[in-house]
């Protein structure tokens, strides 16, 4: 993710919110600064990986789910073959550019495992957040324009509200409900894609209810 973020938005975390989020995540997972800096250098073309490119594949998964697959590859033929294989094996099909991307919006997502909903909502909206969503387990997600994620997170921290995670993600505008038959196939597709070395992120609009999840 560090390589991808640096390649797409440059190596300055101050002007690249996706890179800043990736750095925070890497440091929280105890990545050393040396390893982190090498990954960023790779992303901006500072070493021998200049032939690497970011590729986005789109397709339809089980149950008509819309799926976007973000890859970092030095060999398009190898990567597309692996991605197509995963779709085919799970009953889906690889689509053309634009076939599902219109169903997703690029957003910043600032996540709290728990917290004061009113305080987070007030500070987030005042800082320019687009939406605040609270879940049954007490978790809270703050959605922002992806370019504004860093500024909103800084405002939240200034208000004493430190997030547990922050990332730039592709958020679906509609959901596709999975049943007991299609849910396992979707999960298998995600697993197969994430097992591909070139795949960096998998986004989808599949929705698995608690009732269906309990049967898996």
TrEMBL record:
Gene3D superfamilies with a match to the protein in the record: 1.10.10.200, 3.30.70.980
Transmembrane segments: none
Segments forming domain TACO1/YebC-like N-terminal: 1-45
Domain of life: Bacteria
Record keyword Cytoplasm present: yes
Keyword Cytoplasm included in the entry's annotation: yes
Annotated GO CC locations: cytosol
Protein name per its UniProtKB record: YebC/PmpR family DNA-binding transcriptional regulator
Organism, scientific name: Klebsiella michiganensis
């Amino acid at each position: 993710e560090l390589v991808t973020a640096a390649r797409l938005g440059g190596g300055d975390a101050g002007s690249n919110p996706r890179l800043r989020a990736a750095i925070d995540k890497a440091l929280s997972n105890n990545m050393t600064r040396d390893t982190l800096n090498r990954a960023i250098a790779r992303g901006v073309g500072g070493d021998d990986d200049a032939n690497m490119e970011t590729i986005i594949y789109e397709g339809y998964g089980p149950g008509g789910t819309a799926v976007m697959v973000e890859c970092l590859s030095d060999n398009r033929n190898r990567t597309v073959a692996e991605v197509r294989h995963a779709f085919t094996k799970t009953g889906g099909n690889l689509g053309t550019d634009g076939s599902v991307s219109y169903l997703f919006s690029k957003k910043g997502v600032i996540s709290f495992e728990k917290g004061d909903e009113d305080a987070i909502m007030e500070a987030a909206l005042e800082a320019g957040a687009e939406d605040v969503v609270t879940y049954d387990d007490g978790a809270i997600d703050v959605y922002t324009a992806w370019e504004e994620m860093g500024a909103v997170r800084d405002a939240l921290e200034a208000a004493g509200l430190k997030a547990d995670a922050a990332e730039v993600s592709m958020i679906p505008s509609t959901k596709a409900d999975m049943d007991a038959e299609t849910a396992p196939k979707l999960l298998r597709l995600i697993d197969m894609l994430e097992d591909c070395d070139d795949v960096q992120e998998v986004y989808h609009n599949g929705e698995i209810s608690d009732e269906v999840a309990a049967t898996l």
